[in-house]
Design a protein that fits this description.
It is globular and about 50 Å long. Helix 2 (103-121) packs parallel to helix 4 (149-160). Strand 4 (74-85) and strand 5 (88-96) form a beta hairpin. The longest helix has 19 residues, at 103-121. The chain is 33% helix and 32% strand. The protein has 161 residues and is an alpha/beta fold. The chain is built from four helices and six strands; from the N terminus they run βαββββαβαα. The mean pLDDT is 76. The strands form two sheets. The protein has a four-stranded mixed sheet.
Length: 161
């Protein structure tokens, strides 16, 4: 990929008409050698959320999240990925990140793990979506320069994809 980057974020059901626009954006980015980072609360019509309908197009969906929780006054941080294909859960992984990680670091770590999973497994789905609700992480990934080691490492994983 070139040095140009584009970031977009949204909250839409995957069946709500946004797919065509995202496909156009993806095609434009690909033709113009632009790294594209999409953060999306997508596929709201899914059994995971209590819906009876689902996305069954063969798209691999990797949902990421990071969090901070206080337990008995002590901060605990973590990250997770949830991977689905054709409506079936194929992997759920959680990571304990100790007491000192920020929520941003947790979110970025989850995105990095999702990209690493795709690289390690050499996944061949027609479309692979990494879905994050962290606009801060998406914006950080879209910047050309950063001093964050974790953001740099995540971008390197992303470039291999």
């Amino acid at each position: 990929m070139g040095n140009s980057r584009c970031a977009t974020s949204g909250q839409h059901a995957i069946d709500g008409g946004i797919e065509r626009k995202l496909s156009q954006l993806s095609e434009y980015a690909s033709k113009n050698n632009i790294a594209l980072h999409i953060g999306m609360d997508s596929n709201g019509h899914h059994p995971s959320w209590g819906s009876k309908t689902s996305n069954t197009r063969g798209t691999l969906e990797i949902y990421t999240d990071g969090s901070l929780k206080k337990v008995k006054g002590n901060p605990l941080t973590g990250a997770g990925i949830h991977v689905r294909c054709n409506g079936q859960v194929i992997l759920e992984q959680s990571y304990s990140l100790g007491e000192s990680a920020s929520v941003f670091q947790c979110e970025m770590f989850a995105i990095k793990q999702a990209a690493a999973l795709m690289n390690t497994c050499r996944l061949k789905q027609k479309e692979i979506w990494i879905c994050s609700d962290s606009l801060a992480a998406i914006k950080a990934l879209s910047k050309e320069n950063t001093s964050s080691k974790l953001t740099l490492e995540t971008n390197e994983e992303d470039r291999v994809i």
